[in-house]
Amino acid sequence: MSSKRAVVLVSGGLDSATTLAVARRDGYECLAMTFRYGQRHDAEIEASRRVCEGKVLEHRIVQIDLASFGASALTADIPVPKAGDTPSEEFSEIPITYVPARNTIFLSYALAWAEVSDVFDVFIGVNSVDYSGYPDCRPEYIEAFERMANLATRAGVQGRGLTVHTPLGELSKAQIIGLGTSLGVDYSLTVTCYDPANGEACGVCDACLLRLEGFRNAGLSDPVCYSSAL
Length: 230
Known about the structure:
By secondary structure, the chain is α/β, with parallel strands linked by helices. The protein has helices at 14-25, 43-52, 102-116, 139-152, 154-157, 173-182, 206-218; strands at 5-9, 29-36, 58-63, 121-123, 163-165. The protein is built from seven helices and five strands. The longest helix has 15 residues, at 102-116. It starts with a strand and ends in a 12-residue tail after the last helix.
């Protein structure tokens, strides 16, 4: 059995399922962390359970309340933009589906669990190629967080530095899907949609559009059901 362990952030989506598979491929025993953070649906929580089942040492679902701050279509009563919608000038660069400080908060929780578990590796499925323009998905952000983590923790001060792994960082969505398929990821277990209803992805939000394009470019069929798709 591997002596390497890692904390892996698992949302239940396509990217995090692939990230978990990469960590396991690389010989890590995984501690999975998922957040119920006030998002508009629980579908991804259930998906995270399916994705993690039989693959991790422990799966923790952490309750936090980012909805109390709002300002995102994922945590407030703001419509999720769909294909054909005209973006508001206010959100023309950073989409309204961006959740303020979300990855910083998630990584901080992962850091805390890693430190008390004597773990020095954290995996997160951020991507700087096929993504929605979120500032906390950029490589310079991840590098800055890693530096901060190693200044702010007992383990870092003692010279046992934390590494934040972003194995999907420079991959297109099609490349991510190809990688996950090669590692046996069952994408039918995942939920990527920002606004699912009745167990089906909408097919027209930004997350669905990126996912569908990725499967098309990979020459594969997406195994999830869509209520509509372009």
